[in-house]
């Protein structure tokens, strides 16, 4: 029995320790993302650092002495540092709530359809079957735009843009927004009117956080566009390629002056890639987000099904905040 324990220690302890140390180091370094966009990239993977820490804690219990202490120490460090990144997302306010029978509801579907989606029609069929008032699509292709144009009863805002906004009601104003300075990237805005007045819907698609200069320029551009609209009635939806545990995401959320209505809604990946098939086993990055101004109350926010894209769609239902 002693010999078996020695063999297991030699075989299993090193990878457990190294895995725990890697997760602990990455989770600790991620906190430097408060000051550095390069280190902030590590924050996006906080769930992986947390999972690695938990695995080290569970596996470390099988050993004794200093081996156990080393592995448990690395696991605990990873869990504490990763948990500190993630906990604020679960404690923050996601805005006013409304019951399911609230009057004046507005339903929105947000979906990155993926430019390599081999089943575009199924994705569109599902989106239309949800019977939303507004659909925000990212990574649209000419093939998808042709299918949208053939769908009766829908108005397409910026029908040739990478980000499209489809609506049942005709928009008051639509199209890409031109700003001074760098263009904010794939971004489309449409203005609508309901019983309470005008409101804006903005769809976006951001660069990856590894392209920090591009992503930060897109954040700044979106902030400008939000400021051009009636902020309390503005709705924003899209693929932000940014997780809620990112320090950059938190800063821009505050800058926008809107309320992000999703909470840790894991939306990527939804597709198994040819070279990295394990990635599609389960989603671990919440990078698709929906925002709304203070005049909107949240009825429901949910994740949609797999639809041939590498992103899960997001469905948000809002209602006007009841007057006090």
Provide the descriptors you would attach to this structure in a database record.
alpha+beta; Deoxyribonuclease I, Chain A; 8 helices; 12 strands; elongated; 324 residues; 6-stranded mixed sheet
Which secondary structure elements does this structure contain, and how are they paired or packed?
Elements (H helix, E strand, L loop, with lengths): L1 H29 L6 H7 L2 H15 L4 H27 L14 E7 L7 H10 L4 E5 L3 H8 L5 E3 L6 E4 L5 E3 L11 E8 L2 E9 L6 H16 L7 E5 L7 H10 L2 E2 L27 E5 L3 E8 L10 E7 L4
Parallel strand pairs: 1-2, 7-8
Antiparallel strand pairs: 1-12, 2-4, 3-4, 5-6, 6-7, 8-10, 9-10, 11-12
Shape: elongated
| Percentage of residues in helical conformation | 25-40%
- How many helices? The count is 8
Strand content: 15-25%
Mean pLDDT, to the nearest integer, reads: 92
What CATH first level of the largest domain would be assigned?
A: Alpha Beta
CATH architecture of the largest domain: 4-Layer Sandwich
Amino-to-carboxy terminus distance: 72 Å
What does the model show?
It is built from eight helices and twelve strands. It is an alpha+beta fold. The protein folds into two domains: 90 residues, no CATH class; 215 residues, Deoxyribonuclease I, Chain A, CATH 3.60.10.10. The protein is elongated and about 75 Å long. The chain starts with a helix and ends with a strand. 43% of the residues are buried. The model has no long low-confidence stretch (mean pLDDT 92).
